[in-house]
Amino acid sequence: MATNNTPPKSPFKWVVLTVGTLVGVAHIGVLGHVLNATKIPVINFPQGDYSSYKVEATRDGYRIEYRANDPRVLQSEKSLQLDSAKKGLFGPKVEHRKEYRIDQYTMDGARNLGGGVDAEGKSAKDIECIVADAGARSQGAMAGTAISAGLIVPAVTSIPYVGWLASGWALLLGQKIGSNIGSEVGSAFNDC
User: Hey, what's the torsion of the CAs at 134, 136, 137, 138, to 10 degrees?
Assistant: First the structure.
């Protein structure tokens, strides 16, 4: 009878080989991920006639400055120089003037009539609201005075001894109330 001297194959070797293979593949995957993570990202900006961007990228990170409407203000410079001359012996003297003008325009062609903020830090909208409020207060004060003069003053004037004083107070009260109401109505209509 023949005997087989080969030792039986243990499942332990197969388990160790399988675990080692899985750990090796995982390390290769992690190494590939780490190598790809150090790349600087690619960012595609929309390109247009008036767009500009600036990118500063380092290993620590990146900074992007993008403007979709650059230049925001277009500038035009004009100069004109004229001379003065006398026409004939007794003719009128003709003056020619020098003119130098700088205009700024927005992209849509509208002329820029001032900056975004004045010296006190008020924008054009703030100034427009102040002017609208002043006009609304003035109109409201006139309307309040007229209404109180027509309705309240005739009734108050007939008070003995102090009617003349009470009618003046009624006019001032009507003016003040009309001014406040005009301010509220004006701010509602002008989006202030």
Answer: 90
Which of 54, 51, 64, 46 has the alpha carbon at shortest distance from 107? 51
Residue 171 token pair: 């006019």
Percent of the chain that is helix, strand, coil (3-state, to 5):
45, 20, 35
Say which residue, 60 or 89, is predicted with more confidence. 60
Taking the C-alpha atoms of residue 21 and residue 2, their distance in angstroms, rounded to an integer, is: 38
Q: Is the confidence at residue 117, as pLDDT, over 60? A: no
Q: Which two tokens stand for residue 99?
A: 């003119």
Q: Which two tokens stand for residue 153?
A: 């003053």
Select the more confidently predicted residue: 167 or 101: 167
* Nearest to 77, CA basis, from 60, 57, 102: 102
Burial tier of 52 (Cβ tally within 10 Å: 0-12, 13-18, 19+): middle
Please state, in angstroms and rounded to a whole number, the distance separating the CA atoms of residues 18 and 34: 24
User: Between residues 27 and 120, which one has the greater pLDDT?
Assistant: 27
Structural domain boundaries in the chain = 74-105, 124-189
Q: What CA–CA distances, in Å, run from 187 to 32, 116, 121, 157?
A: 63, 21, 20, 35
pLDDT-derived band at 70 (thresholds 50, 70, 90) equals low
Q: Which tops the pLDDT comparison, 112 or 76?
A: 76
